[in-house]
Amino acid sequence: MSNAIDIKFKDLKKTSEENKSIFSNAKPFPYIEIDNFFDNNYLDEILNSFPKMSENSYDYNSKTKTEVKLAINSPEKIPTKINSFIEYLNSYPFLNFLQNLTGIKEKLVPDPYLFGAGLHEIRRGGFLKIHSDFNIHPQLSLNRRINLLLYLNKNWKEDWGGQLELWDKEMKSCKVKVLPVFNKMVIFRTTDYSFHGHPEPLTCPENITRKSIAMYYYTNGRPKEEINFKNGERGQSTLYQKRYGHEDDFVTNRIIFKKVFGSFYIRKKERY
Fold first, then answer.
1. Radius of gyration of the chain, Cα coordinates, nearest whole angstrom
2. What residues form DSSP beta bridges with 30?
3. What is the pLDDT of residue 82?
4. Which positions ≥6 away from 229 have C-beta within 8 Å?
5. Exposed e or buried b for every residue in 173-211, given b needs 16+ CB within 10 A?
6. 7 vs 152: CA distance, rounded Å
7. Is residue 180 a contact partner of residue 228, using CB atoms and an 8 Å limit?
8. Phi and psi of 105, rounded to 5°?
9. Which pLDDT score, from 0 to 100, does residue 63 have?
10. Is residue 202 a contact partner of residue 124, using CB atoms and an 8 Å limit?
């Protein structure tokens, strides 16, 4: 899988060392965006293998006042080429890169089940309101610590929207906007305060969608400063936020994952 990484980033240890201070000192919370980290020809093959979710029926098609998106979270439904790539993103060399880059002391653990992760696609009119993510894996009972988002959108125009927004802890203002262009990788710490999303509906043409691969990484335990104890023990819940100065049309909700039987979970919305 060495052909997946662009030649200038192949020395993962050197790359992590050169960028760890950028990550840790970033505002509004630790994050980094890296352009062309992966080999463009290899990523072309990944894009060509990406399923046309918007033209087919898949397990997960969320349409609420907090998000409108399509996703494939089951490895057995992901094309072989992309599964091989995901396996690399869960491999020891890449985990070691993330460990050093982020400075997380607890050992990182990948999620082979891709719970909530995997392939995401958003079409015209879709959005994802600002939120902080669920923080406990429902099957592994591990703490979610890192989000990795890899965008696969060629010739994406800024006026179509879809920028990843990073908001401050007080939800007073958006501090960073990231255009979801092809071969842009964003990595950030996942805490109760890492508020992010793309809250405005996409205005891209009907035949174009916003595609990405999402990977989440976990540890056994986490620092207490990453937890907002006012939320209580929220576990497998997503906390959506209202933006200051915006008329966000939803009641503050938390999306929880409720176990039905075996390893099968459903999404359930709680209003509070």
1. 18
2. none
3. 97
4. none
5. ebebebbbbbbbbbbbbbbbbbbbbbbeebebeeebbbb
6. 19
7. no
8. -80, -40
9. 52
10. yes
| 211 bridge partner residues | 121
Encoding tokens for residue 89? 């993103």
Distance CA 68, CA 183 (A): 23
Nearby residues of 23 by Cβ (< 8 Å), 6 or more positions away: 30, 31, 32, 101, 102, 103, 187
Q: What is the pLDDT of residue 244?
A: 87
**Predicted local distance difference test score (pLDDT) of residue 271:** 44
What pTM was computed for the model? Answer: 0.88
Q: How far apart are CA 161 and CA 171, in angstroms?
A: 20
Q: Which two tokens stand for residue 50?
A: 């990406």
Q: Measuring CA to CA, which residue among 85, 99, 81, 132 is closest to residue 217? A: 99
Q: What is the pLDDT of residue 264?
A: 41
Beta strands 143-151; 184-189: pairing state:
antiparallel
